[in-house]
């Protein structure tokens, strides 16, 4: 695994900011009613998508979740088209037909947010099977929540990835809750990483708020996968800044104790501080990135708002390949 | 009987009264209470959500977590557990949050719950009511907006009901829970806010019996769930042209009420079925095929269906509206049937 | 073209030639080779079973375990993996051992494979062929004898084919594998031994095109899969009474060939559909509903369906035979349509 | 857990013999064509069903598998009616409508063989949930194969059983193969019992050919369950005497080495020897039980053969409770 370069650090800092700004804006806009449907925001979990995708190229695949904006941004999807998609516009990544829960860009290796909890596992191992079959050294990364770890697809897919030594990394985003249901209630095992041994693969639990911890663990696991040594399970402890979806009152969240401490942490300034101290980022550059990011998201909103809605006939298009 | 409550509240009340009456009734589902093992909620005996739409709100505080069971995200597991609990004497009411998740747990219905009694030579009884929701119109996109009651209705050994209003919802749900068979109770998520008069007592609405919501002599319109409101609008508009449509709310899609539908068609000679499901192999086709067989001699014209197109549900609001059957499309279809009707 | 091979061999040959031609074609399924990691088999490069019915026999020895992949018993996992592999450029052909197992993996078809292209605004392509088998008549009882192609055919975004003979089986399978969409290829397990002429070359049979197997002017009989043979027997028997039935093998149930069916009904004025599926919301109802709409004016009598009853498949041989549509039932039904036909 | 009594030992020896004789006869009869369909024989695995069910009453529940005759017999189902069911006769346990793969008797707490691999897991935890909810001390036992351990239902059900501390015991019958597929190929974990820790429950691997090993492990686990201490996973190493189903050529089985040793072991004489040595069974009693068992199975065959086939109208019966 490469040491973090300046270039990469800048890339990371930009992506983290993009995700945060994107989500904060969507949160705002949603409350005005301009964005319809179910929207699940990634704010608070930026270190994970960014720390993992920093190791990936467009040729690597990821599968995402209902909480997919962060993965999309980190995987390099176009911000304008993403925002337009969430608005349901013709210029959207999916022509306005997918929306927040189905945002995808196969050209960027982003195999889709997924409205089905646990839906990404088998798709990810399928992409990994393809990578292995074609003798590439591309990998697949499967992002999934703590709640998703209780779906049967988790079990079946990780087991198959193990026996076939597939180049796939399972990245768990343990934000303590599946909707309102605490992970500690829903899982028989204390840690989700504890389940790795049930499939004979390595598993570890890391601080998912710490960009560098994610960057390093993911780097190792992705290297391992590229070398044909098989899958890894990484559990990242994190927390979401907003509710499960927009509109959630969040009555279940603890207002004090360990949970509050986790909630109060912010991996973006944490990373900035680290990167500046390590001279990977100058304070000026960091400021500039923050500024550009704000502008980029503003641009995306403007683009989305000014874009036309889909043409009626598109209702019938793209059901089949002709 | 002046009290008006929402569709959602009527369902909540049906569950409440069924639980009150029979201790064997338990609820299972994801976040149907919410916040399991969260200290501050436990202290106040509060539920966090009461289901993603709030339908089961307040039941956990009243009946406790033994009877209102938050499950992990394991649809096959808790739906199958419901089959097991039903086979051994409880009357579970699992909630499948969206009917679109059926692909995670269909086996529990298709191969287990619906077939056990038959396979076991009549020894098993599976008194289980599966609550779920269907329907487009909430911008929930392709994986949370489908209408799959028609797929379920094709399975022998289960009943499937689709209420259109608060009164029926409460009475049907109680009937479903009292029924000794697997009953799927499918709620249109866009109806939750609809208010109407609902008696405070415990009462049942008969499963398998359709209701004539408007009498007419010129045309029969059969509807499922909220399509009723499309038909009622159509009937109003047709009435202005002197055409009297008879509107039938099917209510139960398995087994559906052949008698009521056929008798109506015998009277009117014309039939339009409105079904929000995708167009192939759905309840509309079933009705059409039965009428085309058993009431053929009474038909004055082709049998018409107005359904969703053969596409997934699109996200964009304008496309989603186009996807849904609406009054204009039904009027156009009616015009094909009735020559003297202006387009 | 005198070579006669079995239905099973024809399928095997179709797979073989598709794999030969395109390296991106891989097979996945439970025991489709068999004996993975068994030393003595590996030494002899032998497969243990080649699938539970032997349909994929010999393919692993020829193409290796990278291309003929035995999976754990994890239907959702490997069916979903096939979706992922297809979305990223391979052309997987997973086998679902019995279509009855669809309840373990429907999501991969219902919510993922069939919807991806649409949800992604046309960017995805899922060239995946799902082989499975259906049908009663093998004493396999309620959980291994169902006919669920009709449920699958209701899902927008996929194609579903049901071959009735070796020739079509080979050509359709090749066409399915070349198709850039999800195609379900459903084999009747009781046809595996059926022999007929099959060309040695690589050829395709068009998906979506029905075949007229016997021409006639008095009555149209549309069949799915092995129901063809019931219809052919019926046509023979009717011919003795001077009644000429036109027999159409539907072949593709989604999208089915409306033109061929409607043209035939326009000619004959009478329609019977034979479908082994349970009777509600199946392909027979779909056909009936379309004909009852689009060819209504040409109909001389009610539209008839002959299907399995609305029950699970029973185990006992005598009951199972009674469950299956047969020539006598079709003849009785035909008699209702044609007055001058003796019962 | 009670020490094994003489009475129980006799019961066990009878059941083991009944299962073996039943299956050997069905094997014979199948080859003559009198029994239709798919038939999966339990011969070779007798120690498991018997050793477990020795602790159960009619009020306890079990879920079984496609290989269900042994569980049925051990749970106390009527041999005549069982055989009649397998023949598809009106007098069968399921009136001839279920057959070998769906044989069941709810009155005996036998919730059915199951044609769906992994189909029993959720049903078993549902029965256990009922036991707990009604505050009984009844338990549920879920028998399942090594292959079934790779179905998602395994994962979901054991996890739920764990978090709800359900009175259920998961008894794995690891006979090395799921159809032709070796467990060592299909499972990422070496041992199936290794998976227990993924759910925070106890798991152990035992010699499934040794009746006493099963009896003791099951006894402990069932006691634990009755006391409300939650589920246990027991992996029993065993082997089936016949093919996966009748008609299987068994090319995949190893003809030598460890596998052959396991195949050659027979838990019935092993138990007889043990029980006689421990004075739990006299040699005479054992001979007599063997003899009675042969007669009972003969009787069952005669009963089945002489029974009428189902009446045609029964095709339409028992779809619904009226
Ligand atoms: C198959 C399925 N079951 C249930 C849901 C409803 N649902 C949507 S998100 C969610 C919680 C997911 O929790 P987790 O995996 O922890 O992800 P998080 O939302 O915390 O990121 C649930 C239950 C769904 N969309 N799909
Ligand atoms: C859901 C499902 N998938 C696949 C099958 C086909 N099948 C029947 S038995 C079997 C093997 C089961 O292996 P295991 O669980 O080890 O049990 P064993 O037969 O060894 O007792 C398979 C794959 C099935 N019946 N159901
Ligand atoms: Mg979570
Ligand atoms: Mg096994």
From TrEMBL, chains A, D:
Domain annotation Dehydrogenase E1 component: ranges: 15-313
GO molecular function, one term: pyruvate dehydrogenase (acetyl-transferring) activity
Keyword Flavoprotein: no
SUPFAM superfamilies: Thiamin diphosphate-binding fold (THDP-binding)
Keywords, alphabetical: Oxidoreductase, Thiamine pyrophosphate
InterPro entries named in the record: DH_E1, PDH_E1_Alpha_Subunit, THDP-binding
Names of the cofactor(s): thiamine diphosphate
Signal peptide: none
CDD domains: TPP_E1_PDC_ADC_BCADC
Gene Ontology biological process terms, A to Z: pyruvate decarboxylation to acetyl-CoA
PANTHER family hit by this protein: PYRUVATE DEHYDROGENASE E1 COMPONENT SUBUNIT ALPHA, PYRUVATE DEHYDROGENASE E1 COMPONENT, ALPHA SUBUNIT BACTERIAL AND ORGANELLAR
Name of the protein described by the UniProt record: TPP-dependent acetoin dehydrogenase complex, E1 component subunit alpha
Organism from which the protein derives: Liquorilactobacillus mali
